[in-house]
Write a structure and sequence with these properties.
The protein is α/β, with parallel strands linked by helices.
Length: 1007
């Protein structure tokens, strides 16, 4: 993620993450007169804020160095700010805090120590107790005992998370001086709920680890010195975003137009379209940015966005805030582990398991799934390759996830066993081990615009759909259906559902929103990019059913003819009661309603049948067994038909499931059948014209009958031809659909290859840079180094090694024993094998044939995963060091006094001769100035000599005097030597002093 630091006040930064903390038993309050009072009124009624209004709550996280920061903060904090401030510190369990008595000197706000059940009031300061974590519910403090199973205690993260869940946009967090990363994850949670975040400037913080970790997330709104924070807080809480539900000065229509224009700016710069995201979320994010910049009107913020391109990027980041952490909703992941992933591993017949995590943010959820798969595969003792594709539209988040380095505060979400097994602790961070990182491929991908992956066993898309409107959700859910294998699983967030797509997925776990795929690929084309005109009327599943029910040959046509004449009429419906297929004359029982055509059998049913039909379908839905209702009376053109109504489950044995057959069986004749009347009478002769007309009429009737029969025959032939053409058309359509599906699969495969190639390219670039750095380091060092593998073959060496071995670049992968050396290396190979077996380093000195001496050190070669993969041998030239050591030994053991001091007289070296001559030990002398052993009458003379030698004059040995520890005067012959640095500048003075006191006394005595 972006690590840039943004200027203070009105220049926004990016958010951070953190967690909650705090516990306490006693409650004390410091009133406006700074008198410490015992408070037992935690259960008394209090208003939520001034005049009954809600008010923001500020959580401050501080650790080492936090006292100075808190003093600077509260000295500038006005007592009547309509804010509540909760200070969470890292305290030892039995530590009795005196923070309240210290802070009362800097503020007139009331100061409380938090008690369980205490209600939060404005214009008050609350301090966490040492032995409990603090949570908030309904603006009331709840004290919670820390969980012993967690590797570390993170009270700040714990409180920040609780604050975000309870207060939403009214939550504010501030991260001050402290070590570690506590507060980072909780800060991210507050930003995700629309709250605001501040952090102390790193340069001001006494310990900058906590504020730096917060700032590096890119989510902090203000990076300020603590003295300036209260002023910005006061401005922020007075903004309409906090105080009112709507911004002033604009109509709803104008407001929406300005929001749309802002989203156009985001789309132009980032390429991402947020128009189908939920407008309430979009508005809250925009209004929060307005509050940060102290802009009251949406039109003014639009102008600000146009004039400041960096604000577009920051707003884009705000719109994408992903509140995520490892194993979020542990119960959900427990179900995922025991019932989903274990089943996938158990039933997998191939060697590849494929998972897609769209909207992965910074990767915590993807790594969590990878860890569970690793554990399940190990238990099953199968050899399975897991590929997890984790995608997001935020490049910074993807880079952060690829790095796989997380703050140590993740220990609150991960068990000690998993931390030890799957992570490497590095300073105040945890790095995911290579075993897990290799299971994941991270890539930048838009769920809306880019083709999806395919042949997946699991799709985990949690808390992404909740930010999208219904139109966009209806486009994305069929994509998930398309990407999953048969019986694949879809894992959604707790606030997300599949909506109306119950024909695509069946519910596996309703509480944690886990769904299982149904049927074959949906019979509609998936278009990329998904555009606004993509939305089409949902097709009835009749097409899907027809694939199983169409009559492709003459034998089926013959069977149908028999069914039409002799079998009772029936219909096939699905579990939504939609008519899929009709056989026989059904018009007596099902009617087409007036208006828009509907295919629901209950709406089409004759009114005399509707009640009974509803009843038996309801019974069938419960028991899934045939249900019959006999003797139903149905009116038909003044008559009453008696029918038996049967509903039973129907299965084709294919993919179409949950079909129902409804049979209408007519019993006997109509009860009020109209009898035909015959006209009897005497025949009488008619006239010839009438006879002729009758004959013509008879002929016409016969001709008409023949014509009708011919027409019927032609119609049958035409119908048969039409059916053949329809069958051919359907086959052609099926072929076209197969081609389209193949094209989509190819497109998905190409996208997958591009993703893998992008990931590989990043790895190659990183590896190339690392190799360049390593080569430059090895070339620049003067230490001869050689890397050997477990078989003592050469892996890499520095150029300096050629001074000791006759080695060439082409000797890579050759055994070191094959290379001739320029010293006696008989024991070197044995020592290397010994180090490889015992893992105990070895060190020795050798002498080369040119007379130089080297210190040889042999160490095990350890990988990042702490595996032994060979040995490293270093050769350090100590020839000059040996000479210096000898000279140092001579100087140290000399009977003459040899000293060194800086130009200001500070003594820096003192040998045994000086100790014997002057009586001061070396430890005492190193704290002295040279003037201590120079008699007062000789000091000017001595320092004049120093000036002369500094100016370039040569000073010959001269007689002078020195002063011992017991104040005795010692006559000495003094030799001064100047010491020069690499730039030929004098930096120190060395003196050699010969005691001539005794010699001088003997000369006087002889005289």
């Amino acid at each position: 993620m972006a690590k840039k630091k943004v200027a203070a006040a009105k220049k926004p930064t990016k958010p951070v993450t953190s967690e909650n903390v705090g516990r306490s038993e006693k409650t004390t309050v410091i009133n406006a007169d700074n008198v410490l009072i015992k408070d037992n009124s935690s259960k008394s009624k209090r208003t939520n804020g001034t005049n009954g209004k809600s008010f923001p709550v500020v959580g401050i996280g501080a650790s080492a160095g936090g006292l100075e920061a808190l003093e600077g903060f509260f000295i500038s904090m006005p007592p009547q700010s309509n804010l509540a401030v909760v200070v969470i510190q890292h305290l030892a369990p039995r530590y009795k805090s005196i923070m309240g008595s210290l802070l009362k000197k800097y503020t007139k706000m009331k100061i409380f120590e938090i008690r369980d059940g205490m209600k939060i009031e404005p214009n008050s300061i609350y301090l966490n107790p040492p032995d409990n974590d603090v949570a908030v519910m309904n603006r009331t403090f709840q004290l919670i005992k820390p969980m012993e199973s967690h590797a570390v205690r993170l009270p700040i993260d714990h409180f920040f998370r609780s604050l975000s869940e309870d207060l939403g946009k009214m939550a504010i967090c501030i991260v001050l001086s402290g070590t570690g990363t506590d507060g980072t994850l909780g800060l991210k949670a507050i930003k995700g709920e629309g709250g605001m975040a501040m952090a102390q400037e790193e340069t001001q913080a006494k310990y900058d680890s906590m504020p730096r970790s917060a700032i590096n997330t890119g989510l902090v709104d203000y990076i300020l010195p603590v003295e300036k924070m209260p002023a910005e807080l006061a401005k922020y809480v007075k903004h309409p975003y906090i105080e009112k539900d709507a911004l002033p000065g604009t109509t709803e229509q104008k407001y929406q137009h300005d929001v749309t224009k802002i989203l156009i700016q985001v789309r132009s710069k980032t390429g991402q379209d947020f128009s189908h995201y939920k407008q309430n979320t979009i508005r809250r994010r925009i209004e929060r940015r307005m509050a940060v910049h102290q802009i009251d009107k949406i039109s003014h913020y639009l102008d600000y966005v146009r004039q400041n391109p960096s604000e577009v990027t920051t707003l884009f980041k705000d719109l994408l805030i992903g509140v995520t952490n490892f194993f979020r909703d542990p119960d959900a992941f427990d179900i995922l582990e025991k019932e989903i992933i274990s089943e996938i591993v158990k039933t997998k017949k191939g060697d590849n398991i494929r998972v897609w995590v769209p909207g992965c943010a910074t990767g915590e959820e993807a790594y969590s799934i990878a860890i569970i798969f690793a554990e399940m595969i190990e238990k099953s003792q199968k050899r399975l390759n897991v590929q997890i594709f984790a995608t997001d539209i935020d490049d910074d988040s993807i880079e952060y996830a690829r790095a796989a380095i997380y703050p140590d505060s993740i220990a609150a979400d991960i068990s000690k066993e998993r931390l030890k097994r799957f992570f490497i602790k590095e300073d105040s961070t945890y790095k995911v081990k290579k075993q897990i990182r290799e299971m994941l491929v991270f890539a930048t991908q838009s769920l809306i615009k880019d083709p999806p992956f395919s042949r997946l066993d699991l799709v985990s898309c949690r808390n992404v759909l909740i930010y999208m409107d219904t139109v966009l959700q209806k486009k994305i859910l069929p994509i998930f259906h398309y990407t999953l294998n048969k019986n694949g699983y879809l894992f959604l967030g707790t606030s997300e559902t599949i909506g109306s797509f119950s024909d695509l997925f069946t519910t596996f776990n309703s509480k944690w929103k886990i769904y299982k795929r149904l049927g074959e690929a949906i019979d509609r084309r998936l278009e990329y990019p998904i555009t606004r005109d993509w939305e089409r009327h949902r097709e009835f599943p009749v097409v899907q059913a027809e694939k199983h029910l169409k009559e492709p040959n003459i034998f089926q046509m013959a069977e149908r003819e028999v069914l039409n004449k002799y079998a009772p009429p029936f219909v096939l419906i699905n579990d939504k009661h939609e008519v899929l297929y009709i056989n026989g004359k059904i018009h007596k029982y099902l009617l087409t309603p007036v208006g828009v055509p509907v295919f629901n059998i209950l709406k089409m049913a004759h009114e005399d049948l509707r009640y009974k039909l509803t009843t038996i379908l309801h019974k069938l839905g419960k028991k899934r067994e045939a249900t019959v209702s006999k003797g139903i009376k149905v009116r038909d053109n003044g008559n009453f038909l008696t029918i038996d109504l049967t509903a039973k489950p129907f299965s084709t044995g294919g993919e179409v499931e949950n079909l129902i057959m409804v049979i209408f069986e007519e019993k006997g004749l109509p009860e009020k059948a109209v009898k035909e009347k015959t006209i009897s009478g005497k025949s009488r002769k008619g006239d010839p014209q009438i006879t002729s007309l009758r004959q013509e009429l008879k002929s016409a009737k016969e001709y008409l009958q023949a014509t009708i029969e011919e027409l019927e025959t032609s119609n049958e032939e035409l119908k048969s031809t039409n059916e053949e053409m329809q069958s051919t058309n359907e086959e052609l359509q099926s072929t076209n659909e197969e081609l389209e599906t193949s094209k989509e699969e190819q497109q998905s495969t190409n996208e997958e290859l591009e993703t893998v190639n992008s990931e590989l390219q990043n790895k190659v670039t990183e590896l190339s840079r690392a190799n360049n750095d390593l080569n430059n380091l090895l070339a620049s060092t003067q230490i001869a180094t050689i890397f050997l593998d477990t078989k003592l073959r050469i892996v890499r060496f520095t150029p300096s090694l050629s001074r000791l071995f006759n080695v060439l670049p082409s000797d890579i992968n050759r055994p070191i024993a094959d290379i001739t050396s320029k010293f006696n290396s008989d024991t070197l190979y044995q020592d290397a094998e010994k180090v490889l077996n015992t893992l105990i380093q070895s060190e020795q000195e050798i002498k080369a044939r040119d007379g130089s001496h080297y210190s040889v050190r042999i160490l095990p070669y350890r990988t990042i995963e702490n595996l032994i993969d060979g040995v490293v041998i270093t050769f350090v030239d100590i020839t000059n060091i040996r000479i210096v050591r000898r000279l140092a030994t001579v100087v140290k053991d000399s009977n003459d006094a040899i000293t060194m001091h800086e130009l200001d007289g500070t003594i820096t070296a003192w040998n045994k001769g000086a100790t014997g001559m002057y009586g001061y030990s070396e430890a005492e002398a190193m704290k002295m100035n040279i003037s201590r052993i120079v008699p007062e009458n000789k000091r000017n003379e001595y320092f004049k000599k120093i000036k002369d030698i500094k100016s370039g004059k040569t000073i010959k040995p001269f007689a002078t005097q020195r002063l011992s520890k017991d104040k005795k005067i010692i006559d000495v012959i003094l030799k001064i030597t100047k010491l020069m640095d690499g730039q030929d500048r004098m930096y120190s003075i060395a003196t050699t002093e010969l005691d001539v006191t005794e010699l001088k006394r003997l000369k006087v005595f002889s005289k």
